[in-house]
Structure formats: C-alpha cells, structure tokens
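Render this sequence as a predicted structure.
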Amino acid sequence: MVLLGAVFLKGFKEAIGIAVILVALYLALNLIVVLIGIEQIAAHPHVFANWKTALFAEHGSPLAMIGLSLLLFPKLALGLSGFETGVSMMPLVKGAPDDQEPRPVGKIRHTHRLLLTTALVMSLLLLSTALITTLLIPADAFRSAGPNGEPAGPANGRALAYLVQ
C-alpha cells in the first residue's frame, strides 16, 4: 500500500502504467483458467448434460428459468461494474492531431474503441467464467454459511480460485 501511495504521489500516469501491467497480468491468468476450464468441459461433455438435467429438474420449464435469470441478472451485471474504470481512463485517451476543441472527433472515436474493448473483454470473461464455474464446480461447494455456524462452501466467493486448486 505504501508503494502504491508513493507511485500516486509521483503521478497519476505512472500509477495508471503500473495498474495496466497488473490488470493485464490478472486478465492473462484468468484467461488461462478459462481456457483450461473450457478444455475440461470439452474433455468431459457429460458435465453439460448433467447440468441441463439438474436445471430442468430444479426449475421445470424454460419460462421459469428465464424468469429466475431476469431476477438474478443484476447480480451478474455487478461483474461488469469495472466498466467505471474505463470511464475514468477517458481523460487519458489521446485524440487525433487534427482534433478541434468544440468536437474532438479523434478523441471521441478512440474513447468509443476503449469502452467497446472494455465491454467486450469483460463480457466474454464474465460469461465464460460463469459457464466454467457452473459446469465444473459442484453446487454444494457454492453454499453460503449457515445461520447455525455451518461453514460456507469452499467455492463460495472464490469460484475461480477453487478451480485452480
């Protein structure tokens, strides 16, 4: 924390440079976990069939599944909350040499690219991690801590770390 504070004292751009390296490393490690997870699903296709059977046994109809999905979507969308980070980077986006102050077309174009790239990367990682954790982790590993002091499941709040073990 002290080192991070010292970097911020040196300058915002330096802190962003370090953050970019850390985020790239974090995303690369997550991508490795996702690719290995997809490889495991491809090697064991029965996990998808088992999940589908359990899904229909639990919820019965596709309409019930869609309704539940709509209720749970806000929680899933929280995974996209990192989008604000992209917005905070907008002042650092460089414009085109011929940009004019009232309407900097190049800066707007580059900002659109930044936000689109961020949204695509986050969406792909969110959907792929949801898929591999759902198919590869037993449901009881996700259980919450019980009211009588029962411990939470080993994957509760740390699904990707559980897969890495």
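Summary. DSSP finds seven helices and no strands in the chain. The two ends are 27 Å apart (CA to CA).
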